[in-house]
Specification:
Blueprint lengths: L10 H15 L2 H33 L4 H29 L4 H4 L18 H16 L1 H20 L5 H17 L1 H17 L10 E3 L2 E2 L4 H16 L1
Antiparallel strand pairs: 1-2
Length: 234
């Protein structure tokens, strides 16, 4: 299993050289930016996107707020589970990093001594992106776009083969979608209980006044009662 890409005629290797070759032609400062973006920046952007989506969901409220927040809670949990699933996969495949078997690569990050298949970064970002898509399609498409950018960066940096990235995308997607139904069955009731809690309801929906959660139709009902009382008084 360690010989997934050992031949220079392998399309996987050829694509690796083509994408990593861009790093050789780029200015040094641009490579340093790509190094930060590929190693930390896109992961941070993904976390901020999840937080932004949560903020949008709780502000909008609605009857599906609890299920949407439950899906958002599932996204990082799915990413963590996918990385754990990847541990035995990496050990079983035992694929060395590209720069171990192939010369002439411009490796932007040093110190990578673990195995290459599957890419943890690709797995994490795609799991988060797909989890976001389950909660909110608009934010999910942005998250999947960030995951694709992460995959490109890992190959550009010379630390992964393209198939390492594709495998990470597949693993993150599979874990997120296959375990989404039982996760939703567990997390949605929990978020509904949180929504009813006076001290924790802000996690699910924005409050209209301090200590009182926003309840769809509540203001309309109060206005209706006030109107009826005025009519009786008249």
């Amino acid at each position: 299993m360690a010989v997934l890409a050992e031949s220079g005629s392998n399309p996987d290797v050829e694509l690796l050289y083509d994408i990593n070759g861009l790093a050789k032609d780029a200015p040094h400062w641009f490579d340093r930016i790509m190094e930060f973006v590929g190693e930390y920046g896109l992961l941070l952007a993904m976390v901020l996107l999840v937080v932004w989506c949560w903020w949008s969901v709780r502000r909008r409220g609605g009857e599906d707020a609890a299920s949407s927040v439950a899906a958002l809670v599932w996204a990082p949990l799915a990413a963590g589970i996918a990385v754990l699933v990847n541990i035995p996969i990496r050990g079983f495949v035992s694929r060395p990093r590209p720069f171990v078997d192939h010369q002439g690569l411009d490796v932007l990050v040093s110190g990578k001594t673990d195995f290459s298949f599957v890419s943890d970064h690709a797995t994490l970002t795609m799991a988060l992106g797909v989890g976001l898509f389950v909660a909110n399609r608009r934010f999910g498409l942005a998250g999947i776009g960030l995951a694709l950018a992460e995959g490109f960066c890992r190959v550009y940096m010379g630390v992964h083969y393209p198939t390492d990235v594709v495998g990470g995308f597949a693993l993150g997607t599979a874990v997120t979608l296959l375990l989404a139904p039982p996760a939703s069955a567990l997390l949605t009731p929990l978020m509904k209980a949180v929504e009813k809690s006076p001290g924790l309801a802000w996690i699910v929906r924005r409050r209209a006044t301090a200590g009182v959660p926003v309840v769809p139709g509540a203001r309309r009902a109060v206005e209706s009662v006030d109107s009826g009382e005025r009519d009786l008084a008249a």
